[in-house]
Automatic annotation (TrEMBL):
PANTHER family: ALANINE RACEMASE, ALANINE RACEMASE, BIOSYNTHETIC
A Pfam family of this chain: Ala_racemase_C
Organism: Candidatus Thioglobus autotrophicus
Metabolic or biological pathway, per its Swiss-Prot or TrEMBL entry: Amino-acid biosynthesis; D-alanine biosynthesis; D-alanine from L-alanine: step 1/1
Cofactor requirement: pyridoxal 5'-phosphate
Gene Ontology terms: cellular component: cytosol
Keywords, comma-separated and alphabetical: Isomerase, Pyridoxal phosphate
Name of the protein described by the UniProt record: Alanine racemase
Taxonomy of the source species: Bacteria, Pseudomonadati, Pseudomonadota, Gammaproteobacteria, Candidatus Pseudothioglobaceae
Active site: K33 (proton acceptor), Y244 (proton acceptor)
GO molecular function: alanine racemase activity; pyridoxal phosphate binding
Homology family: Belongs to the alanine racemase family.
Length: 348
């Protein structure tokens, strides 16, 4: 018996539909970087219904190509001739975000489909806004380069009222993008800022059923259900402690379940006492520190037996955002952090 991450195909399809509902006029680029946000590229087939897919590594494009013929957006672009040729063979659209990439693109003897990323305030990847006219003049008339889209990225989209969102959108709208497609909206701005949708939207976390905001979004369906078996049951006497550091003490005689999952599987080490765990339909409370292979849970809210499976997240009663909040982190980190020793399966 071991931990299992079950990936719901119907939830993936539903969440992609939610994207289309929010941005009906835009084409969709499914963000499947970081192994589909930890969900495994070979288990997310419903997302291939999008217009494009986006990855952060050429190795991910390699893995995707046997699974789908949809165009792949390679977010870091390329810096070597070898990578350029492979990306072209894999039918990748390349992101150009740094002037250091210019020479290798101009030297291409094969067709290149290019997205130009402009830094409107994130101060991460992207060319300076004042560099765009010169870059366009060098690339737009190149016989082998086809500029497909001008893109940028919000720094504070998960805070809809943050003034930087309007500032960045204004800067982007002032760019002379000619007749090229435009793209700026991630999950948060797809939901909260319709004026940022433009021609392509780039949903990420919402596809996997988690909200980009601090509040739960009931429109989205959890995709990854992480579960693990109960390995043992014990009664802890009043005054006794549980786990490393003796951080949890029984105020009265308490029945606990020892569950076969820990930080070695990707369950958060910093989950606090009281973090909810779903057992047989009831929300129970984490008791004691998370160890490498095990957690202990107070099961006074339910009855259970050895072999019953506890759900750690991925149910409408217990979403990953809730566990992230108890662990002082974000859903992105939990989903991408599930380890290789967890068995991944596909479910309807």
């Amino acid at each position: 018996m071991q931990a299992v991450a079950a990936i719901s195909q119907s939830a993936l399809a539903h969440n992609l539909t939610v994207v289309h509902t929010h941005a009906p006029q835009a084409k969709v680029v499914s963000m499947v970087k970081s192994d589909a946000y930890g969900h495994h590229l070979d288990l997310i087939t419903p997302l291939f219904a999008a217009d494009m897919l986006a990855v952060s590594e050429l190795s991910e494009a390699r893995r995707l190509r046997p699974l789908t013929q949809k165009p792949i957006l390679l977010l870091p672009g390329v810096f070597t001739e070898e990578d350029l040729q492979e990306a072209i063979q894999l039918n990748c659209h390349l992101v150009f975000h740094d002037l250091a990439q210019l020479a290798i693109l101009i030297s291409s003897k094969h067709p290149v489909k290019l997205w130009i990323k402009v830094d409107t305030g994130m101060r991460r990847l992207g060319i300076a806004t004042q560099s765009l006219p010169d870059v366009l003049s060098q690339l737009d008339n190149h016989e082998h380069i086809q500029i497909k889209c001008i893109m940028s990225h919000f720094a504070c989209a998960d805070e809809p009222m943050h003034p930087k969102n309007i500032q960045q959108l204004d800067i982007f709208n002032q760019l002379d993008t000619k007749d090229f497609y435009r793209s700026m909206a991630n999950s948060a701005s797809i939901i909260s800022r319709a004026k940022s949708h433009f021609d392509y939207v780039r949903p990420g976390i919402m596809l996997y059923g988690a909200s980009p905001f601090t509040n739960i979004d009931e429109q989205l369906m959890p995709v990854m259900e992480l579960s693990a078996p109960i390995l043992s049951l014990k009664t802890i006497k009043a005054g006794e402690t549980v786990g490393y550091g003796a951080t949890w003490k029984a105020s009265k005689d308490t029945r606990i379940a020892i569950i076969g999952i820990g930080y070695g599987d990707g369950y958060p080490r910093h989950a606090k006492n009281g973090t909810p765990v779903l057992i047989n339909g009831a929300l129970c409370a984490l008791a004691g520190r998370v160890s490498m292979d095990l957690i202990c849970v107070d099961i006074k809210q339910t009855s259970a037996k050895i072999g019953d499976r506890a759900i750690l997240w991925g149910n409408v009663k217990l979403r990953v955002e809730t566990v992230a909040s108890y662990s002082q982190t974000i859903a992105y980190e939990l989903l991408t952090g599930v380890s290789a020793r967890v068995t991944f399966t596909q479910c309807a």
